[in-house]
Write a structure and sequence with these properties.
The chain is mostly helical. It contains 15 helices and no strands.
Length: 368
């Protein structure tokens, strides 16, 4: 089989079976391309993992794109990314079709009632684990709290990310009071009135999100809520939570939650446009970032900028987890489901099995 065929076969399989989020995806890729196939040395693989953390976008998807380029050149870059994304995008589109057609039936509502608390538990535990790594100093802890406060006060998410990264970069250049970076950040005004839906507007919104989103895939949901629920009013809070749930029960990148939203707004065409918009920046960033990676690794200010971005991303996750939790954990059964999921996650139970168990719990509650 040619290198291009090998790339296509591997990433189609991973895109169909890689449950568990970015960390699990990266572990599976290491096993396949380092331990089994010897396409890369472990040192080369770690360099690529580091490179994906220096650019916005979905880390595991960008890692797949990097590997494809290393093994099969520019065509490999395109094929690896497309093959990793396509299976999940097709599954999410099928689920979105079923949701639109049957979403109001009691059985589907019952399934989602059990799944949503599990999703909140998964997000909260991911937030906790990431915070243990990201909050390296008291300054970063203070910065994270300030970011969360700023978002709750109405400061735009992109402004929070930019200010956090800039502040940390400045601390490596000169001593800057932590409050100084927050002076230019003011609320961007009241929430806008609902805008008329358009394919172009949806594409540009997803393109923007894919171009600026650092951190875990879970941070995506904070951006989706800010744009599609609060600013544009194109979807409801409940539909956003359902998009998150669908992202959890399908393999591949969590960014395919955008595919679900695109289908809700514009059918199959909307799903395709949303998927293209959210993932296109990842291909472009991987293509252009390679030569810059060695310099960024050596530059103290760039490294500090990324520390600030990561902490701000976790603050966004905390805010969105709180807001979505209020809409999902609403009574004693959902409290019990969320608590049981948190305990199971602590003991390393796969998120896939927990989501399925949540669905069964929801059906059982409806039957009872």
């Amino acid at each position: 089989m040619s290198p291009l065929g090998e790339v296509a076969a591997l990433f189609l399989r991973l895109g169909t079976t890689a449950f568990g989020g970015p960390a699990a995806h990266i572990a599976m890729m290491e096993d396949e391309v380092v331990a089994r196939r010897k396409w890369l040395t472990r040192e080369d693989f770690l360099d690529l993992v580091g490179a994906t953390n220096l650019i916005p976008g979905p880390n595991s998807t960008e890692l797949a794109i990097h590997i494809g380029y290393r093994h099969a050149g520019w065509l490999g870059l395109l094929v690896a990314g497309a093959c990793f994304i396509l299976p999940a995008a097709l599954m999410v589109t099928a689920l979105a079709w079923a949701y639109v057609r049957y979403g109001m039936l009691p059985e589907v509502d019952a399934v989602l009632r059990g799944v949503k608390p599990v999703v909140i538990a998964i997000v909260v535990l991911a937030l906790w684990r990431l915070a243990l790594t990201a909050v390296k100093t008291p300054l970063l802890g203070f910065l994270g709290a300030a970011c969360a406060t700023g978002v709750l006060l109405g400061i735009h998410e992109l402004a929070v990310l930019a200010a956090a990264g800039t502040l940390m970069a400045l601390t490596r250049i000169r001593h800057v009071p932590p409050a100084a970076a927050w002076l230019p950040l003011v609320p961007l005004g009241p929430v806008a009135a609902a805008s008329a839906f358009s394919f172009g507007g949806m594409f540009l919104t997803f393109l923007k999100i894919g171009s600026v989103l650092f951190g875990s895939g879970y941070v995506l949901f904070a951006f989706l809520r800010a744009d599609f629920v609060e600013r544009l009013h194109w979807i409801t809070e409940t539909q956003l939570i359902d998009a998150i749930a669908v992202g959890q029960i399908t393999p591949g990148p969590l960014f395919t939650a955008a595919t679900f939203i695109g289908y809700l707004l514009g059918g199959v065409g909307g799903a395709a446009v949303a998927t293209l918009g959210i993932f296109l920046p990842a291909f472009l960033f991987v293509a252009v970032s390679g030569p810059l990676v060695p310099w960024l690794r050596r530059n103290a200010a760039a490294s500090a900028f990324l520390d600030g971005i990561n902490v701000a991303s976790l603050a966004l996750m905390a805010v969105v987890a709180f807001q979505l939790g209020r809409a999902s954990i609403i009574d004693l059964p959902t409290i019990v489901i969320a608590g049981a999921a948190a305990i199971a996650l602590h003991f390393k139970v796969s998120s896939l099995w927990l989501v399925l168990a949540g669905a069964l719990a929801g059906l059982a509650l409806a039957w009872l």
